[in-house]
Amino acid sequence: MNDDAKIHTGSYEGRQDQVRSLDFPEIEVFQNIYSDKTYRIDMEIPEFTAICPKTGLPDFGILYLSYKPAEFCLELKSLKEYVTAYRDVGIFHENVVNRILDDLVKACKPRWMRLHGDYNVRGGIKTRVTATYSA
Prior knowledge:
The chain is α+β, with helices and mostly antiparallel strands. It is built from two helices and six strands.
């Protein structure tokens, strides 16, 4: 890319800077009594909703979570409360997936984790975002 070329960020400049510091409900965990085994847990969150930061309209999608637990497993009720807290947040799809992955990894410290966000079509464009963590 030419140094003289400008990147057009439109009206989004600085509007997502707060994403890493937003407060969300705590994600609880429980002891994995099979931590000596390597196994995978798969979850589907089919009613994920956040707000489009441009239009203010809801963005709907499905979150697919897969992880290999180490010492702890994710507790589902707190995970549901955590995910539901995004309903009123204006946030880009890419930031949703990365922020949730960061918070889940921090909570349960897995061996491996993958989060895939599969968003409904909006304006003729379908978005899918995947982020992965490995210990």
